[in-house]
Amino acid sequence: MTDDKTLGVYDEKAGDYARLMDHDTIAPTALNKFLSALPERGTVLDLGCGPGSWARYMVKAGFRVDAIDASAGMVEKASAIEGLNVWQADFSDIQDVAKYDGIWANFSLLHARRAEMPAHLARLKTALRSDGRLHLGLKEGTGEARDSLGRFYTYYTVAEIRDLLARIGLSVSDLRTGADKGLDGTVAAWFTLTAHG
């Protein structure tokens, strides 16, 4: 994510976002299912970790966790988590090869431009081990827009993401859909899925 306006919102509202994550009832179910498919004490990347809510959970569950976020405010929050390896980075900074058993990209890649998504997904596949799993959470819809806080979003259909993943040799499972109120106070449709070889 390189959109300065979006980063500014997250820097300013890191505390508010952390409190919102504390009341998230959707991600824990998806995260538990995701982690259950990974090897014990496996290596996970939390891509766009925010304040580290889910990274903390993964560390406590015994996983070795790297966490990145492009927002300095979010990285500062996540850095307080004991046992978490966290640093400030953009999606395009991922250059690892076969390092991760799992990559948790929970509503982070939706801030990337549509034209950039194929390259981001290809880098993530390269960073995964051959039997690795990629969790994606995205907002459902079409087009690109900013919310009332000024954050940039790209909206996707499930069919569009399935196609992008198929092009790099990944299949989809564990598809879930819903709608929830976000940081801007509006209810938006979303979907999550797991991609694997």
Features:
two-stranded antiparallel sheet; Rossmann fold; 9 strands; single chain; globular; alpha/beta; 197 residues; seven-stranded mixed beta sheet
Describe the protein's architecture and organization.
Pfam families: Methyltransf_25 (PF13649). InterPro entries: Methyltransf_25, SAM-dependent_MTases_sf. Keywords: Methyltransferase, Transferase. GO terms for molecular function: methyltransferase activity. With 197 residues, the protein is of the alpha/beta class. Helices cover 32% and strands 31% of the residues. It has helices at 4-12, 14-21, 27-36, 53-60, 72-78, 117-127, 158-167; strands at 43-47, 64-69, 85-88, 100-106, 128-139, 144-146, 152-154, 171-181, 187-196. The strands form two sheets. The protein has a seven-stranded mixed beta sheet. It has a two-stranded antiparallel sheet with strand order 6-7. It starts with a helix and ends with a strand.
